[in-house]
Structures are given as C-alpha cells and as structure tokens.
C-alpha cells in the first residue's frame, strides 16, 4: 500500500523539470559511487590497479584501446610495474583480480578448487562452441565427464590407436613437405600444423579424418566453420556487449550457421555409426566408440547431442593448442639468437631413437630432448596464455588478498613463463636444457597445462602427437624461417594462434651414412 502511495506521489510530481532533476541526481550519485571503478563492481582501494579507470566504465576503455597483438604485453607490463597481484574492473563482466604467482595459481586451481568455477558468463560466451561439454561445465556434469574421459584416456588400446593415427596423418604432412621442397615453395607451417591436428582429431574422435591435409590450399567446410566459430567465441570474451553487437551485425547469423554446420556434421557421423555399427579389424576403438559404449550414472547410454558436445570439446581442446605449440617451437628453435646447437641435438636424438623407422607408442618415451623443446616452447608461448575463474565463496589468496564471491581470479601463464622471479635471469632464452635432468616444475610454476583436478586431460596425448610429427619431419627435412628476425604476431583468442601464420622454407635432408635422412 505504502509503495503504491509513493509511486502515485512521484507520478503526480513527475513534471519534465522534476524528471530531469531526478535523472541528474541519480547520475551524480552513480558517478560518485563508481567514480573509480566499473558499475556493478565493489570498490577495492586495497588492490593495485593500472592507471586509466573511468567512472562507471572502469578499465573497459583502456582495454579497448590495446591492440589485440599487444594484449599479453599489457599484462606483462602491469606485472612488472604493479607486482603479481593487481586488478581491473569491467562493466557486466565484473572485477578481475590478476594473481601471477605459482602459489596463487595452485591455491585457486588446487587447494581451494571448490571455491572457483567457470561460471555462467563463460558458459554464455563459449556455449555455442562447448555446449554442455567438459570445458564449460562445473559441478556434477564436469565430474561425470572427467571421470569418463580420464578412464578412456588411460585405456592402452586407445593410446596405441592414437599413436597409429598420428603416424598416418604425419605421413601426409611429409608428402606435402616433399612437394614443397622439390618445388622450392614456401609453406605456412602454422596452417600445416592446424590441418595436421584437426585431421588427427577427426580420425581419433570419429574414425575419419576431415581431409584437410589432402586439400591444404583449399577449404574444408567443417574446418572453416570450426575456425570461424572459435574466433567469434573468443571475441565475446573481450566484449561485454557481444550479444548486442552480434544481433546488429552479420556475426550472429554466421555464428548460428557455423554452429549448425559443425553439429550437423558430427551428428551425421554418430547416426551413421549407430546404424552401421563400429567396423574395426582390431581391438582399437576411437573416442566416439568408447563414449558410445559408456553409460551415465543411471546406467543409460549417452544421448547423441551429448556425444556431439563431448567430442567437439575434445577437438577444441586438442586441436589448436597442440598445433600452436608446435608452431611456436619451430619458430623459437629457428629464430635469430637461439643457440644453433639446439636443432643439432634435436636431430641427433631423432636419428638415434628412430633411425629410418616410424615412431611408435614406445619410441616417444625416448625422445626426451624433443619433449624438452616442446615444453620450453609452451613456457614462452603457452597455448592458453590467459585464464580466469569466478570465485563462488569468499576466499583469501596466499598473500592475504581478499577475493569476494562474484569476483574473478585471473592469471596468465604467458606472464609467469616470462618472469625472472619464477624462472631465473635467463627466462627469455629458449633453453630446452632447463628441462633435462632437473626436477619437474610444479603445476603452479609451469601452468601451461593448467593445474589441480582440472589439469589438461590430453597432456600425454598432445606430447605423443607432437613428438610423432616432430620426429617424422626431422627424419627427412630441414626447415628454416623465411624471416628469422621477425617475431610472429599473436592473435587474441582463448588460445595463442600466430596471426599471420609461420612462413618457412623446406629442404630435404641429405642422406647420411648409417640412417637418418631418407627420401619420401
Ligand atoms: C599443447 C597442447 C595442450 C595444451 C597446452 C593444453 C592446455 C590445457 C589447459 C590450459 C587446460 C585448462 C583449460 C581451462 O579449463 O580453462 C586444458 C584442459 C583440457 N584439455 Fe588440454 N591442452 C593441450 C592439449 C590437449 C589435448 C590434445 C586434449 C585432448 C586429447 C586436451 C584435452 C583437454 C581437456 C578435456 C581439458 C578439460 C579438463 C577439465 O576441465 O577437466 N588438451 N588443457
């Protein structure tokens, strides 16, 4: 009753002049309240912040002005100037507390795991890509998928199956390199690796390659839609108004089209598998078959839509990350200033371990130096350079910083991988030897594969895939950068793509007595 009276009163006095006064008073109130931080966020004068916050908008204008190819440099600069803990506030998204130290990362991802989640904002932005798959899920749904997948990834037959797939797909890479070497044409190594990992994933997931390596200069619809949708979803993470932007531009319709194409293609494969059954001459099964044979907690088989989500999540998780790491590794080894003995040691190991033979599931365990090269590249250019989790229970970080429910904890493996305090004075040097005969760094120190209960499930899978293709390429070819002085610009995404690819030249290795280089 009292409210009705109040509303009546306000309406009676709601002249144009009064409305203006009310509006001005409210605006003044909000501008004063949010004078140094974004609307909707808590004021945190206890935290260091980069200069340039606006009333109501917080750091949004500052972030919007940073060119995409300099985003992580902004984080690195703040780390140097403000220390490992600092914060920004953004409208709609909220307050982000950056904590770039191994202790903080271990605290959030391991010790206090249940106080942090992916949260609805991430699910909304990435939902078209991830659906209800493992990446965007929390709680019971995440737990169920993690349990299923952990089991499957440990099945020996599956590991052997993947190993065979990588060899078959890497052979197609060699054919392409052979042609480029003979014709003397430059290649885009980054694109080649993206094709290799997508085709390998097609074969591992669905039992059939997507055919990208057979059509390198052309376009495969699935791959194009997959890339475009990944880029669209990544852009959403930087733009609180993405829904409006997409509704007003053609981006929204294209995202719908891409999502429909990818899902239709995946569903067709699943339905074909259901009607025709799994044809195999051995005991080896692909990922789809293993998940189709799995049951949920009630003992029911998984639905087709759910299977699509699961398989697509694995493809997204494993495709770009591994291809990017391989590309940055070949860049780092060949760039000006890198010790030339690194490549020689790597080739020597390939010759010693593989000779003229094809790699197998067992040989990759002996490629210790190649694995060190791969990890060292992931330290300097982590495939997931920046990450975030939303706090769901008030918490205190190891340095005493409070973090309240609804605020984000963010961290950057890119920044930590370049920190002298964490890695020592030679941090910017590409130095695989730091991985040899030393204790494995903690997950907090080397966080490129994440940490704690949600640590990357495909780490060994990625290493196996990488070592297979590295070994097979170096058995037969020498690769050099077209411009060894140029740092390839990175693109802003959830991962770390090379914006302009990686132009390389390729020559055949000279045949050597006692094995090593042979003709393709
Ligand atoms: C160099 C290659 C790779 C890197 C650097 C990498 C890194 C990561 C990172 C940082 C995460 C955490 C993401 C997050 O939750 O925000 C992650 C999660 C995950 N990765 Fe990888 N990954 C790689 C390859 C792979 C491959 C090949 C697969 C699959 C075969 C895979 C499967 C997964 C899955 C399923 C998760 C989600 C785990 C969970 O939420 O419980 N990854 N990976």
Automatic annotation (TrEMBL):
GO terms for molecular function: heme binding; iron ion binding; monooxygenase activity; oxidoreductase activity, acting on paired donors, with incorporation or reduction of molecular oxygen. Keywords: Heme, Iron, Metal-binding, Monooxygenase, Oxidoreductase. Pfam families: p450. The keyword Iron applies. The keyword Heme applies. Its cofactor is heme. InterPro entries: Cyt_P450, Cyt_P450_CS, Cyt_P450_E_grp-I, Cyt_P450_sf. GO terms for biological process: lipid metabolic process. It comes from the Eukaryota. Heme binds at residue 456. Belongs to the cytochrome P450 family. This is Cytochrome P450. It comes from Linnemannia gamsii.
């Amino acid at each position: 009753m009292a409210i009705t009276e109040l509303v009546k009163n306000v309406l009676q006095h709601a002249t144009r002049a009064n409305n203006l006064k009310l509006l001005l008073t409210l605006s003044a109130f909000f501008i004063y309240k949010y004078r140094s931080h974004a609307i909707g966020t808590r004021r945190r004068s206890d935290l260091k912040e980069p200069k340039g916050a606006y009333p109501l908008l917080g750091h949004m204008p500052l972030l919007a002005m940073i060119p995409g190819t300099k985003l992580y440099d902004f984080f690195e600069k703040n780390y140097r100037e403000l220390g490992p803990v600092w914060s920004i506030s953004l409208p709609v998204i909220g307050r982000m507390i950056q904590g770039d130290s191994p202790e903080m990362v271990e605290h959030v991802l391991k010790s206090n795991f249940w106080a942090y989640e992916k949260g609805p904002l991430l699910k909304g932005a990435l939902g078209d890509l991830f659906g209800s798959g493992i990446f965007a899920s929390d709680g019971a749904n995440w737990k169920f998928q993690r349990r299923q997948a952990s089991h499957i990834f440990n099945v020996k037959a599956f590991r052997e199956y993947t190993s065979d797939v990588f060899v078959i797909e890497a052979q197609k890479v060699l054919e392409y390199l052979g042609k480029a070497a003979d014709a003397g044409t430059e290649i885009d190594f980054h694109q080649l690796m993206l094709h290799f990992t997508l085709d390998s994933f097609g074969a591992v997931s669905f039992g059939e390659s997507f055919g990208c390596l057979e059509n390198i200069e052309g376009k495969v619809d699935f791959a194009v839609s997959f890339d475009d949708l990944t880029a669209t979803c990544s852009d959403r993470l930087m733009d609180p108004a993405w829904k409006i932007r997409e509704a007003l531009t053609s981006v929204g319709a294209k995202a719908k089209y891409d999502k429909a194409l990818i899902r239709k293609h995946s569903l067709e494969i699943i339905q074909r598998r259901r009607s025709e059954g799994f044809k195999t001459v051995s005991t080896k099964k692909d990922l789809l078959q293993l998940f189709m044979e799995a049951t949920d907690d009630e003992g029911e088989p998984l639905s087709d839509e759910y299977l699509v989500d699961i398989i697509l999540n694995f493809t997204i998780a494993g495709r770009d990350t591994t291809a990017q790491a391989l590309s940055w590794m070949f860049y780092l080894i060949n760039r000006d200033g890198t010790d030339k003995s690194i490549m020689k040691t790597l080739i020597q190991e390939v010759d010693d371990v593989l000779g003229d033979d094809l790699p197998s599931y067992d040989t990759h365990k002996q490629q210790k130096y190649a694995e060190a090269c791969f990890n060292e590249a992931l330290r300097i250019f982590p495939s997931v350079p920046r990450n975030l989790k939303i706090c769901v229970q008030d918490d205190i970080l190891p340095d005493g910083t409070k973090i309240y429910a609804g605020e984000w904890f963010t961290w950057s493996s890119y920044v930590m991988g370049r920190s002298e305090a964490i890695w020592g004075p030679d941090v910017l040097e590409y130095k695989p030897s730091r991985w040899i005969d030393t204790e494995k760094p903690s997950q907090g120190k080397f966080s490129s594969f994440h940490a704690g209960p949600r640590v990357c499930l495909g780490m060994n899978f990625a290493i196996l895939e990488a070592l297979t293709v590295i070994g097979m390429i170096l058995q037969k070819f020498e690769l050099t950068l077209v411009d060894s002085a140029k740092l390839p610009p990175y693109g802003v995404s959830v991962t770390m793509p090379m914006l302009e690819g990686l132009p390389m030249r390729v020559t055949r290795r000279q045949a050597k007595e006692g094995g090593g280089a042979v003709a393709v």
